[in-house]
């Protein structure tokens, strides 16, 4: 049986990644923290307009 080791058109941005469950949980946690941080920065910039006083 052969396997296809390439990318089909339309699938270039959808790689499949296999990893242990613990690493998946850490990745999910870090992605959540990053998203929250980005929302906080956006909110701060909207309300105050600068990052120089952000805490």
UniProtKB/TrEMBL annotation:
Domain Putative endonuclease Z1: 1-48
InterPro entries: Put_endonuclease_Z1-dom
Pfam family, one: Z1
Superkingdom of origin organism: Bacteria
Protein name as it appears in the record: Putative endonuclease Z1 domain-containing protein
Organism of derivation: Spinactinospora alkalitolerans
